[in-house]
């Protein structure tokens, strides 16, 4: 025969059950609040990083805009046709102008071209020889136009272009040709010089090298905020 528990024991059991339920509910709420707080803190930290990256981007854009405006102004002054060019010649856009004449932009591009243009190089060298009445001209080198690709790079390197140039004129003109190569806005590195003949009929032979440098590439950074 089952003996019913006393009323006091039944009351204690009910209180214990309620206590367990309250403790379980409180534990669940506490864990939920902790997890929610962690998620909110992580979200807030992420938003702060996003806002910081946005401020940096806006500041950089504003700097770029100011730099671009300043560059446009400076280029206008640089290309002022009313003034002489940077090497003391006439500032002209005539494509056939011989050194020291020519517009500044073209002079700078000619100084260190970004493309391997062998025919243009030979034309430029012939122009210097022609300006001093050099006859029996010879311009020899290795034309690598078929194998050279002028691809832009983040850190472009100088590329050597060897040449051997010769011509016949008087001694004064031979000297003038050498000086023109030395003063050329495009660098010519003369490594060997031979002069043969008389003062009025002299053959000048120059072994030298010039250069070109591929354009520098600009990469836009895509930065992900984590």
What does this structure look like?
This protein is α+β, with helices and mostly antiparallel strands. The protein is 47% helix and 17% strand. The protein has 4 helices and 4 strands. The chain has helices spanning 7-78, 104-111, 118-130, 171-183; strands at residues 135-141, 159-169, 188-197, 202-212. Strands 1-2-4-3 form a 4-stranded antiparallel β-sheet, with helices on one face. A hairpin with a 4-residue loop joins strand 3 (188-197) and strand 4. The mean pLDDT is 80.
Highlighted features:
single chain; 226 residues; alpha+beta; 4-stranded antiparallel sheet; 4 strands; 17% strand; rod-shaped
Helix proportion: 40-55%
* Unreliable sequence segments: none
Number of helices: 4
Give the CA-CA distance, first to last residue: 70 Å
What sequence of helices (H) and strands (E) makes up the elements?
HHHEEHEE
Strand content: 15-25%
Radius of gyration: 40 Å
The count of DSSP E runs of length 2 or more, i.e. the number of strands, is: 4
What's the average pLDDT? Answer: 80
The major pleated sheet works out as: 4 strands, antiparallel
Shape: rod-shaped
What structural category do the secondary elements indicate?
alpha+beta
Main sheet: strand order = 1-2-4-3
Put the structure in a nutshell:
This protein is of the alpha+beta class and 226 residues long. The protein is 47% helix and 17% strand. Strands 1-2-4-3 form a 4-stranded antiparallel sheet, with helices on one face.
């Amino acid at each position: 025969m089952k003996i019913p528990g006393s009323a006091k024991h039944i009351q204690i059991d009910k209180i214990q059950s309620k206590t367990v339920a309250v403790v379980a509910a409180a534990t669940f709420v506490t864990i939920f609040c902790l997890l929610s707080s962690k998620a909110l803190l992580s979200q807030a930290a992420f938003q702060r990083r996003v806002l910081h990256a946005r401020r940096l981007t806006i500041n950089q854009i504003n700097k770029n805009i100011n730099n671009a405006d300043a560059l446009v102004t400076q280029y206008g002054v640089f290309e002022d046709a009313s003034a002489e060019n940077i090497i003391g010649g006439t500032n002209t856009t005539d494509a056939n102008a011989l050194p020291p004449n020519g517009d500044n932009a073209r002079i700078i591009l000619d100084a260190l071209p970004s493309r391997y243009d062998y025919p243009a190089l030979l034309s430029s060298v012939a122009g210097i020889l022609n300006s001093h009445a050099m006859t029996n001209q010879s311009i020899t080198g290795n034309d690598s136009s078929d194998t050279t690709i002028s691809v832009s790079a983040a850190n472009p390197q100088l590329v050597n272009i060897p040449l051997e140039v010769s011509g016949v004129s008087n001694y004064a003109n031979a000297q003038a040709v050498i000086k023109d190569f030395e003063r050329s806005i495009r660098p010519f590195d003369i490594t060997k010089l031979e002069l043969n003949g008389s003062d009025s009929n002299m053959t000048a032979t120059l072994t030298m090298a010039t250069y070109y440098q591929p354009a520098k590439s600009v990469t836009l950074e895509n930065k992900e905020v984590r």
